[in-house]
Amino acid sequence: MIIWIGSYLLLGIFTGFLAGLFGIGGGAVMVPVLAVMFVAQGFAPDYVVHLALGTSMAAIVPTSIASLRAHNKHGAVLWPAVRGLAPGIVVGTFAGTFLAAWLSPQPLAIFFCLFMTYVAVQMILNRKPDPARELPGLAGLSSVGGGIGGVSALVAIGGGTMTVPFLVWCNVRLQTAIGTSAAVGLPIALAGSMGYILNGWGIASLPAYTVGFVYWPAVLMMAAASFLSAPLGAKLAHSLPVATLKKLFAALVILLALQMLRTVLTY
Length: 267
Fold this sequence. Notes:
single chain; mainly alpha; two-stranded antiparallel ribbon; 10 helices; 2 strands; Probable membrane transporter protein; transmembrane; TM_pro_TauE-like
């Protein structure tokens, strides 16, 4: 058990740092790694991916708070965009958890792999937006938020891998896009956690210390570590160029997604 506690702490440190640096929730890293760890611990194979998704969502809550606070100190949170995106994000995320609970692990793993690979390719290409493009109105932001929330629930990400590219596409400064994404990640994590708890409630084959699809020993260890490391990543985001780091992160995302896919399909 000590080995797993240490592993959760290390995972929390790493994902918290990435959350602060890129404005992501950390699910892109947590989900595939947790899936591998849960398989190694002998958890019920039918629910390994669901547990990884739900546990990741719950761990993202404190990570998002720490990242949000750090970015807000730098004045890098575009609050009008947060208010416009948040309603759709909450509805989309909560609804998406019911679809995720209904699907079997294999489709979820395939969807996660394909989606994260697409996001990684977009990060590597680093396409420049039309200079005249601006943020849409309230209705447009709410619609975009619904899409971001729905996909976030299926892959347990804080939405940063979609929110940051969307905001940059609308000509928001990269550092501000990262800070705004960190703020948007909090309602995603809260709604997603509640959804995964409700959808996994009462399933007898889940491991001990689990509430719904949330495995709390992993959540507590990762959350404690990420809460400390997220501000460090946020500080770097405002002092270093992130283009090269984004490409490295994209490569890491692809490798982790492929590893998750291999683990689920061969277990």
